[in-house]
């Protein structure tokens, strides 16, 4: 079969919690949880995305709903490949031509982890795969001009990793990646409720608690949320009320870890760039930065103005989409080097 023309250019924010797909010329076309339900007997994929997420913690013995990405990297290669194949097919439809794909990766991944992403995307149907660091994509998506010789600091808090980078002249000058992010906040909520109330709650309930009453800085007004779980003593379902002050107690430790990571990057930043950051402020992106009071906590501890970017959840995907405009330039540059 002969192929005429080229496929689409696609940008993918391959997140631990959510996959966001950007198609050149169309914008964001898909936003679904990075969850896959697999039949353990046959290895067949039963559901992907929203449908699979509804199955989390509610599946029969032979069906396992899992997240194939953990801490920002591929933990289950085969399932990730099947998930990518599903999303690419959903976006491209009946298009005969393989797309060029740009995928976001955390700033401190190993060469082995990079190769796993490239191989998974290639086997899922990509004609060519490009990688972009998440903080750089987040900065572009936040509308920062990263090409200028001045320092910009981006703190991108996703589901699996928090990526912190000082960017100048289109590249990272100082960066770090920590595995304390959205999922870790959920873990701390589960641990806190288990320790204080002897109650087991699921990941989805912990996430709802974090989003609705979670905070890392004292709230002006106390709020509460009703939570159902299983009592470890009786083994029966129990309902309790959790307040925002309790959530502050549960979430403060992981929030402090993120603030400490930002502090360590600032300590390693060259003086001229540190002065730029002091003037311009710190930009926060990613769904994790929406936890109430995280910007206030970071501003109080660093003494630098902190801004939350518009459309924080989509920042990385939008930045990847804008970076797609440079694919022809990248290809031309590679051809000249060969």
- The arrangement of helices and strands along the chain is EEEEEHEEEHEHEHEEEHEHEEHHEHEHH
Spatial separation of the terminal alpha carbons: 29 Å
Alpha plus pi helix count: 11
Structural class, by secondary structure, is: alpha+beta
Mean pLDDT: 88
- What is the count of distinct domains? 3
By CATH, the topology of the largest domain is Nucleotidyltransferase, domain 5
Global morphology = flat
Q: Count of DSSP E strands?
A: 18
Cα radius of gyration in angstroms = 21 Å
Q: What features would you describe in this structure?
A:
The chain contains 11 helices and 18 strands. The strands form 5 sheets. The protein has a 5-stranded mixed beta sheet, sandwiched between helices. The protein has a 5-stranded mixed beta sheet with strand order 13-12-11-17-18, sandwiched between helices. A 3-stranded antiparallel beta sheet has the order 5-4-6. The protein is α+β, with helices and mostly antiparallel strands and 338 residues long. The protein folds into 3 domains: 9-136 and 316-337, ATPase, nucleotide binding domain (Nucleotidyltransferase, domain 5), CATH 3.30.420.40; 146-180 and 257-310, Nucleotidyltransferase, domain 5 (2-Layer Sandwich); 182-250, Actin, Chain A, domain 4 (Alpha-Beta Complex), CATH 3.90.640. The protein starts with 8 loop residues before the first strand and ends with a helix. The protein has helices at residues 50-53, 77-92, 111-123, 134-141, 182-197, 203-213, 244-268, 271-280, 294-302, 315-323, 327-337; strands at 9-14, 18-23, 27-33, 36-39, 45-48, 63-66, 69-70, 73-74, 100-105, 128-133, 152-157, 162-168, 171-178, 199-200, 224-231, 237-243, 282-285, 306-308. The protein is 39% helix and 27% strand.
